[in-house]
Write a structure and sequence with these properties.
With about 350 residues, the chain is α/β, with parallel strands linked by helices. The chain is about 25% helix and about 25% strand. It folds into two domains: about 5-125 and about 305-335, Alpha-Beta Complex (Quinone Oxidoreductase, Chain A, domain 1); about 130-280, 3-Layer(aba) Sandwich (Rossmann fold), CATH 3.40.50.720. The strands form three sheets. Strands 3, 5, 6, 7, 8, 15 and 16 form a seven-stranded mixed sheet that branches. A six-stranded parallel sheet has the order 11-10-9-12-13-14, sandwiched between helices. Strand 10 (about 175-180), helix 4 and strand 11 form a beta-alpha-beta unit. The longest helix has 14 residues, at about 290-300. The structure holds NADPH dihydro-nicotinamide-adenine-dinucleotide phosphate.
Length: about 350
């Protein structure tokens, strides 16, 4: 057996950010690596995920996931290789996903690991297209949004991990028209030319309301909201009778330092009999077998495409996280480790 490393690096939250997180709010620290005890495994992380929801976990606020604790490691989705095992269920060399990202080495109970197959897809895909963001798109569109054939679907944050998959899935499942918004002209081009959106616009180029009305002259049946704010208000004004909104994320508000106003036109929901429903992906793990089968099939047939933005090195992970909030990423933002 090769010797285990003595120590590894892990990101700690050291101060609660006010507004946009700053480098002083976090610290990369060296900690000892421990050998796994009975029923536990030690994993060398190969990739981990930095996600918008982590901004909420930096606040000391009650939510659907506990806040990060000060001077403690941050966590999140990761994929890696088992390098020592005290469990009969995992052998050295197995690849697993788990919840202890933001670090080079993770030691934890084997029951919290899920084995993944590196021959089916690149390992980073289990953090995105075949992982949490993919399942969010799938469950959001099909279960929460009740997508129907012939729907006109609008997706915001459409060049990101969840949005790009939601838009393509809508097309695959028979939407009549799929419209996306994103924050640059290059992203807009990608939506139409590579992902097969019928129309797309850059929300920085003019009011969302006007651009959406031009892209969806006959209105929208289903809005997949990753952004909130102006996008949500604009979508409500374009929704048809019995329209649906999947309230998946509100990234335009995550760094707000004041309470943000709700959509001013919410009363339209009454006459148009709209349904606006929030979602959290963890409620939908029951869909995983069906999701993996469908998505693996669409990837193999080429019907579903995806991009990743890869940042190398654990020392660059915090900047990668800020990059997600800034829009540096196209598709899933992945931190790849070279430890
Ligand atoms: P993305 O890959 O979409 O990255 C975030 C993107 O948000 C950026 O690339 C940027 O793209 C866009 N963005 C940033 N600020 C703004 C803004 N002010 N207005 C409009 N767009 C902005 O991230 P994910 O796919 O991981 O997540 C997308 C959304 O889904 C997030 O809101 C997230 O919180 C939510 N989510 C919810 C889950 C749930 O269970 N409910 C699970 C997973 C994600 P651009 O260049 O286009 O501005």
């Amino acid at each position: 057996m090769t010797a285990l490393p003595e120590s590894g690096r892990v990101w700690h939250l050291v101060a609660r950010p006010h507004g946009l997180p700053r480098p002083e709010d976090v610290a990369l620290r060296e900690v000892p690596v421990t050998e796994p005890g009975e029923g536990r495994i030690l994993v060398r992380n190969l990739h981990f995920s930095v996600d918008p929801y982590m901004r909420g976990r930096m606040n000391d606020a009650k939510s659907y996931v506990p806040p990060y604790q000060l001077d403690r490691p941050m966590d999140g989705a990761a994929v890696g290789e088992v390098i020592a095992s005290g469990s009969a269920d995992f052998a050295v060399g197995d690849h697993v996903t788990h919840g202890l990202g933001w670090r080079e080495y993770a030691e934890f109970p084997a029951g919290r690991a899920v084995r993944v197959d590196a021959s089916l897809a690149p390992l980073s895909a289990y953090l995105g297209v075949l992982g949490g963001t993919g399942l969010t798109a799938y469950a959001g569109l099909l279960e929460i949004g009740s997508l129907k054939e012939g729907d006109t679907v609008f997706v915001s944050g459409a060049a990101g991990a969840v949005g790009s998959q939601a838009g393509q899935l809508a097309r695959i499942k028979g939407a009549a028209r799929v419209i996306g918004s994103a924050g640059s002209d290059e992203k807009v081009k990608l939506l139409v030319e590579e992902y097969g959106f019928d129309a797309a616009f850059n929300y920085r180029n003019g009011p969302v309301r006007d651009q959406l009305k031009a892209a969806a002259p006959d209105g929208v049946d289903l809005y997949f909201d990753n952004v909130g704010g102006e996008h949500l208000e604009a979508a409500i004004s374009s929704l048809n009778v019995f329209g649906r909104v999947v309230l998946c994320g509100a990234i335009s508000q995550y760094n707000s330092t004041e309470p943000t106003p709700g959509p001013r036109n919410l009363a339209l929901a009454i006459g148009r009999r709209l349904r606006l429903q929030g979602m959290i992906v963890t409620d939908h793990y029951g869909l995983l077998p069906e999701f993996v089968k469908d998505v693996a099939g669409w990837l193999a047939s080429g019907e579903l495409k995806y991009h990743e933005t890869v940042v190398e090195g654990i020392e660059n992970a915090f900047d990668a996280f800020l990059g997600v909030l800034r829009g540096d990423n196209t598709g899933k933002m992945i931190v790849t480790l070279n430890n």
